Amino acid sequence: MKIYLKDDEIATENLNPGIKVYGEQLYQEKDLEYRMWNPYRSKLAAALLNGLTNIDLKEDYKVLYLGASTGTTISHISDIIKKGMIYGVEFSPISMKKLISLASKRENIAPILADARKPKTYLNLLENIDFLYCDVAQAKQSELFMDNMNLYLKDDCKSLFMLKARSINVSLKPKKVFKEEEKKIKEKGFKITEKVKLEPYEKDHICFLVEKSF
Ligand SMILES: C[S@@+](CC[C@H](N)C(=O)[O-])C[C@H]1O[C@@H](n2cnc3c(N)ncnc32)[C@H](O)[C@@H]1O
Fold it and tell me: Which residues does the chain have with pLDDT short of 50?
C-alpha cells in the first residue's frame, strides 16, 4: 500500500506528479514525488495517524466512496489504488463540479451524482466493489452505510465508516451515540474489527473498520 507514515506526518505517492489537489505540499524523495496528506482535511489521514491499521487497500481495488465532496480524500485513495477505480457518490452539484475536474486529471476516479440513500439508483454504474468508504455526515448515516454494504460489498471485504455523532443527535454525548450506532451495526450482522477516534483532528467523530460476517 502506497502510504508513507512518519511520526505525525503522512503522505501518498503522487499519481499525477507536479499537480496539487487542495493546496497540499509536494516533496521529492529519490525519484518519487509525494503529496502530504492533511489530517485536518481528511478523516482517513486522521484515522491512520491515530492507529487505524488493517485497511489493506490494494493497487487494483474497486472502491465505492459515499460522500465524495470535492475529492480531498478520494485524491489520496486514487494515489494508493493506482490501477483500480474509485466510484465517488456525491449529491451536491457544487461539490460534484470540482470532483469532475479532479477526475479529468486522474483516470481512476469515476464521479457519480446521486443520493447515497438510494443505492439502487447507481446499480448499473458499478461492478465488483472490493472496499466501501462512507463519510456522509447526516442523520441516517448508519442505515445508509449498511444499505450500501448489503447491496455492493462482496463477502469478506472491508469497509470504513466515518461516523459523526453530532449529525445524529446534537443533544446526546458523542460517546453514547457511538455506542448506540455500534450496537445497531452489530445487530445487523456486521463485524467491527477496529475503532479509532479522530481527535485532535476532528471532534466527535469515530472511524469503524467493518466487515461482513455472514
Ligand atoms: C464530510 S463531507 C465528506 C468529505 C470527504 N469525504 C473528504 O474527506 O474529502 C460529507 C459529504 O457527504 C455528502 N452527502 C451527504 N449526504 C449524502 C447523500 N445522501 N448522498 C450523497 N452525498 C451525500 C455531502 O454533500 C458532503 O459533500
Answer: none
N-term to C-term CA, the chain: 27
Could you tell me the residue range of the domain that residue 122 belongs to? Answer: 38-212
Pocket of ligand 1 (CB under 6 A): 42-43, 67, 69, 72-73, 89-92, 95, 115-117, 135-138
Question: Is residue 14 in a domain?
Answer: no
Question: What is the pLDDT, as a whole number, of residue 4?
Answer: 85
User: Ligand 1 center to residue 66 CA distance, Å?
Assistant: 7
CA distance 117 to 134: 12
Each residue's pLDDT tens digit, 130-188: 999 999 989 999 999 999 999 999 888 999 999 999 999 899 999 999 999 999 999 99
Residue 166 lies in a domain: yes
Q: Tell me the CATH number at 158.
A: 3.40.50.150
Whether 15 maps to a domain, the answer reads: no
DSSP 8-state symbol, 99: H
Radius of gyration of the chain (CA): 16
Ligand 1 centroid, distance to 92 Cα (angstroms): 8
Is 2 inside a domain boundary?
no
